[in-house]
Amino acid sequence: MPSAKDKTLPRIVRKRSRVHGFGVFAQERITKNTRIIDYAGELVRNSDSVAREARYLKEGCIWVFRLNRRWSRDAAVNGNVARFINHSCKPNCWFEVVDHTIWIRASRTIEAGEELTYDYCTIGDHTIKCRCSSDCERWI
Predict the structure, then answer these.
(1) Label partner for 84 (CA 20 to 30 A): which of 5, 16, 23, 92?
(2) What is the residue extent of each domain of the chain?
(3) pLDDT > 70 fraction of the chain, expressed in percent and rounded
């Protein structure tokens, strides 16, 4: 059950990103460990998400978030702005899975105007070049 602190989530906004396409930016200062937003999307069985993941990867997107061995969230279906949070190898956010809810949380104090990022921790084929910095060699 969310605490009183979590009832009012920080203000964030989607806009163009230097990292990739659109990103999500803090509109106010966010303190360390604060829950920022839940990663919303259709709850699907992993066996049903494989074809979707392949289709999204061909488009250069990662919309499916694996919750556990059985379930995933597909943010392309009923998702929210959290799906636009970009990957970074040096992120300012982390994720926490609570039951079937994925919370994006601040890993340090984030200043207003700063882009939110987290490490996608992808598994399987790494087919998308990381764009977190010009010298990053990682594939996600």
Answers:
(1) 5
(2) 4-118
(3) 89
- Is 41 or 127 the better-scoring residue by pLDDT? 41
Q: Which long-range contacts (CB under 8 A, 24 or more apart) does 65-72 make?
A: 65/39, 65/41, 65/102, 66/123, 67/97, 67/100, 67/102, 68/97, 70/45, 70/46, 71/43, 71/44, 71/45, 71/46, 71/100, 72/43, 72/44, 72/45, 72/46
pTM here is: 0.84
- Dump pLDDT digits (tens) for 84-111: 999 898 999 999 999 999 999 999 999 9
Instruction: Assign a CATH topology to domain 4-118.
Output: Beta-clip-like (2.170.270)
Contacts of 77 (CB under 8 A, 6+ apart): 41, 42
